[in-house]
């Protein structure tokens, strides 16, 4: 059976992506770091709708945890493989660069960039043989395209993910694997709850923050058979804020 793995599937955009992939018929592996309660809510929501989901806890920035979690998943699923990977887990630690601590810099890079590298490298081993095919979607950001003040760490990590998406897309296209990135603008989730929506939405042509479901709809398209000829792309979902 072909599974979908969503890193950071417990909350926000990741949860909406898990739900949409389940509705497409994929059994979904919901990764989370520490919020078991939120991950269980995602799982229950999928099951209520008749889908199938499993929880898989690991910290995407920790190679040892990733290897051990995926080893045990593979041992209990000898006939299955993960054909859809959404690298969604991410964090913000905003600060102006001259005040930024080593920890603020490294935590953001480790989660977004190293997380992408460790998880993707591991799963490609199973997508590539015998041209089984696969879909990889990387959740980048407007910040990685435009750069946002106070987010040099986050902008650097998201820009790096976009570069890696374009390079990897060319490496694996002959094996039937597509690799794309999405670049959301301001989306209403826990990550943005400390921001002033009233001030920020004045800058957004559509006049509001986006919803996680509006982001998930683009992932649904990129994972669908209709998107087989799209790879190495970055799709903006930002209400017209930046293109
Ligand atoms: P969120 O509501 O804060 O959720 C973050 C998710 O990432 C949670 O599921 C969290 O797990 C998980 N996570 C964080 N660090 C992790 C780690 N080291 N290992 C595994 N999982 C980890 O954030 P969101 O707004 O949905 O953001 C999702 C993605 O979209 C991120 O990559 C973010 O950068 C990107 N994005 C968001 C916006 C926006 O406006 N919200 C805009 C552009 C891009 P726990 O629940 O266990 O903590």
What does this protein structure show overall?
The protein has 243 residues and is of the alpha/beta class. It contains 8 helices and 7 strands, in the order βαβαβαβαβααβααβ. It has helices at 12-23, 36-48, 63-76, 102-127, 142-146, 152-172, 197-200, 212-223, and strands spanning 2-6, 28-32, 53-57, 81-87, 134-139, 177-184, 234-237. It has a 7-stranded parallel sheet, with helices on both faces. β2, α2 and β3 (53-57) form a beta-alpha-beta unit. The N and C termini lie far apart (38 Å). The mean pLDDT is 97. The structure holds NADP nicotinamide-adenine-dinucleotide phosphate (NAP).
Oligomer: single chain
Order of helices and strands: EHEHEHEHEHHEHHE
Helicity level: 40-55%
Q: How many beta strands in the DSSP annotation?
A: 7
Report the end-to-end length measured between terminal Cα atoms.
Answer: 38 Å
Biggest sheet descriptor? 7 strands, parallel
Can you give the mean pLDDT?
97
User: Strand-residue fraction?
Assistant: 15-25%
Query: What gross morphology would you assign?
Result: globular
Give the distinct bound molecules.
Answer: NADP nicotinamide-adenine-dinucleotide phosphate
* Structural class determined from secondary elements: alpha/beta
How many helices? 8
Runs in which pLDDT lies below 50 for 5 or more consecutive residues are: none
Radius of gyration (Å): 17 Å
What strand order characterises the main sheet? 3-2-1-4-5-6-7
């Amino acid at each position: 059976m072909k599974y979908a793995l969503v890193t950071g599937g417990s909350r926000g955009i990741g949860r909406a992506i898990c739900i949409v992939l389940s509705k497409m018929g994929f059994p979904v592996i919901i990764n989370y770091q520490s919020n078991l309660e939120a991950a269980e809510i995602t799982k229950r929501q999928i099951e209520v709708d008749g889908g199938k989901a499993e929880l898989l806890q690991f910290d995407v920035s920790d190679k040892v945890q990733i290897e051990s979690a995926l080893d045990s998943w593979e041992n209990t699923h000898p006939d299955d493989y993960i054909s859809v990977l959404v690298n969604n887990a991410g964090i913000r630690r905003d600060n102006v660069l001259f005040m930024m601590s080593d920890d603020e810099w490294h935590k953001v890079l480790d989660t977004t960039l190293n997380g992408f590298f460790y998880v993707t490298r591991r799963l490609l081993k199973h997508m590539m043989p015998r041209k089984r095919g696969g879909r990889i979607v990387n959740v980048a950001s407007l910040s990685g395209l435009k750069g946002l003040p106070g987010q040099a760490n986050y902008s650097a990590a998201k820009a790096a993910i976009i570069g890696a998406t374009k390079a990897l897309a060319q490496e694996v296209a002959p094996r039937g694997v597509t690799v794309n990135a999405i670049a959301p603008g301001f989306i209403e989730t826990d990550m943005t709850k400390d921001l002033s929506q009233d001030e920020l939405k004045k800058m957004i042509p559509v006049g509001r923050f986006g919803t996680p479901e509006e982001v998930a709809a683009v992932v649904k398209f990129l994972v669908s058979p209709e998107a087989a000829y799209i790879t190495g792309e970055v799709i903006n979902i930002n209400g017209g804020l930046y293109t």
